[in-house]
Amino acid sequence: xxxxxxxxxxxxxxxxxxxxxxxxxxxxxxxxxxxxxxxxxxxxxxxxxxxxxxxxxxxxxxxxx
Length: 65
Known about the structure:
alpha+beta, 3 strands, 65 residues, 2 helices, globular, three-stranded antiparallel β-sheet
């Protein structure tokens, strides 16, 4: 099962979604997206932690079943 990160889940008003097999792959995609669409955003250790916490398994139900 793949993983997904939505900018909105990190608190950003943006429709971008990063899909990948691993959290590291999604982090790379998110960092590239931030460079082009959220200019000036730095991926601090705190932001990286928030991003990692927002990565979800794709296809999971909303209530974890």
